[in-house]
Write a structure and sequence with these properties.
Layout: H1 34-40, E1 43-44, E2 47-48, H2 83-92, H3 96-107, H4 115-122, H5 132-143, H6 147-157, H7 160-177, H8 179-186, H9 195-209, H10 211-220, H11 225-239, H12 243-252, H13 256-270, H14 275-283, H15 292-305, H16 307-315, H17 321-337, H18 339-347, H19 356-366, H20 371-379, H21 384-401, H22 403-409, H23 417-423, H24 431-436
Antiparallel strand pairs: 1-2
């Protein structure tokens, strides 16, 4: 398959990670789409992706920066008169290690007697993403002795989905102590709807205490994507027992949707740091539908460190969707870092539907530097719908960069008047789109 050589400088891949401030975020605005977006986020690397909104709360008063000096042997604060002083010093500490160590020390013995004193400090801290870790510790510790009042506190500090995610943080602590009582609360009639959010906290805490019982609960649920995410949480917990145990557990699952979630979760966890180990395990499952997403994850992460090894691995797999998705993922990253090498590899392959996905991501990547060359790659795609969507995307990117050249090319392009009109009216990119394409 002969394509034009790409002749421009390297792309630089920038990855930007987001935390899910979900459990601990506060919001005074109802956002109808938040729950759907949250349940569709991929749980990755033991964290969750961010849905961040600012809480309306009393700002903290500025204080002079001062460090909490910790003894080397006990790692506890020196010269702190009382709990309130410890918390205020922790709040003003800029060193994150000392800050969280101090908050952990202050909260490890949280009880009814000192709760009010602790809350005085937290009332000065926004109930939002920027203090996620501090509130996570507070809600987890509070749930050990009074989860109901902790939940009421969440509802006072936030509303709607914000309060729901914060309550999930309480449920994590509650379930780690008394999962059946936490489950009974989640299943109350008045919690219908938000129970899908609450289950994230319930299952995480329950799995840390009794993995088998938590698994039985998850597998008994009816649902779609949100249940698959819960299986991802279970997989995280099993993974703590070692790679062999986790992979055996994933293989033992009988429901394909659960198996897919477990395979995907393990692939995300291990593909960047141990891609060869992950590749050896996935090879036996390469032709199975439940392994497609895992193959995609492997391709994305392995290609960040060794795209040539990754592309050679996928090229040797049996033809199928797993191979196609793996090659697509590798080419997508490779084209950003070394478009010449990625283009040469594509030139050496036979054209066909199995290569269309890779051609599409390659054309999209190339279009950010050379729209004319990218358009030739887009036109070479055999699948009509994918070709059309790629031509539209590439054409709009080219138009943003070189309007005059596109205006010269369009009348001779053979594209419909409708497509030409769409190319001439590219949507404005938002900040995230601009930075993620660098």
């Amino acid at each position: 398959m002969k394509k034009p050589s790409f002749r421009l400088p390297l792309f630089v891949l920038m990855g930007v990670g987001l935390f899910l401030g979900g459990y601990y975020q506060g919001t005074k605005q109802n956002q109808d789409s938040v729950i759907e977006r949250a349940l569709n986020q991929e749980i990755e690397d033991g964290t969750e992706d961010a849905i961040v909104t600012e809480a309306s709360t009393t700002p903290s008063s500025p204080r002079p920066s001062q460090s909490v000096e910790l003894e080397d042997d006990k790692r506890i604060p020196k010269n702190v008169e009382n709990l309130r002083e410890l918390l205020y010093r922790a709040q003003s500490e800029s060193n994150p290690i000392l800050r969280y160590a101090s908050f952990a020390k202050a909260l490890e013995n949280l009880n009814d007697n000192n709760l009010e004193e602790v809350l005085e400090t937290f009332e000065t801290m926004p109930f939002g993403f920027e203090h996620m870790q501090e509130y996570r510790m507070l809600l987890y510790a509070w749930a050990q002795f009074d989860p109901i009042n902790a939940i009421e506190y969440c509802n006072r500090r936030a509303s709607g989905m914000g309060a729901g995610f914060a309550t999930a943080g309480v449920l994590e602590g509650w379930a780690s102590r008394d999962p059946l009582q936490a489950k009974a609360w989640v299943e109350r009639t008045e919690n219908a709807g938000l129970d899908k959010i609450y289950n994230f906290g319930l299952v995480r805490g329950w799995a840390s205490r009794d993995l088998n019982a938590a698994s039985d609960y998850v597998f008994s649920l009816e649902g779609g994507k949100e249940v698959e995410k819960l299986v991802g949480i279970l997989t995280e917990e099993v993974n703590k027992q070692g790679f062999a145990t986790a992979t055996n557990w994933a293989e033992s699952l009988t429901e394909e949707q659960f198996k897919e979630s477990a395979f995907s979760s393990l692939s995300k966890r291990h593909s960047r740091d141990n891609p060869k180990k992950m590749a050896r395990w996935l090879e036996a499952h390469a032709e199975e539908n439940y392994a497609i997403q895992a193959m995609d994850n492997l391709g994305k992460r392995w290609s960040e460190t060794d795209p040539e090894a990754a592309i050679n691995y996928f090229a040797d797999l049996p033809p199928g969707k797993g191979q196609e998705m793996g090659i697509k993922s590798v080419v997508g990253n490779w084209a950003k870092e070394d478009p010449l090498a990625a283009g040469e590899w594509l030139n050496e392959r036979e054209a066909g539907p199995e290569l269309d996905s890779a051609l599409s991501v390659y054309a999209s990547a190339v279009s950010r530097k050379d729209g004319a060359a990218a358009m030739e790659w887009a036109i070479s795609i055999s699948d009509e719908k994918l070709q059309e969507s790629t031509i539209r995307k590439v054409g709009q990117e080219w138009y943003r960069q070189d309007k005059d050249s596109v205006e010269t090319w369009l009348p001779e392009s053979g594209l419909s008047q409708g497509m030409q009109k769409v190319i001439r009216n590219p949507p404005k990119k938002n900040w995230w789109q601009s930075i993620s394409e660098r």
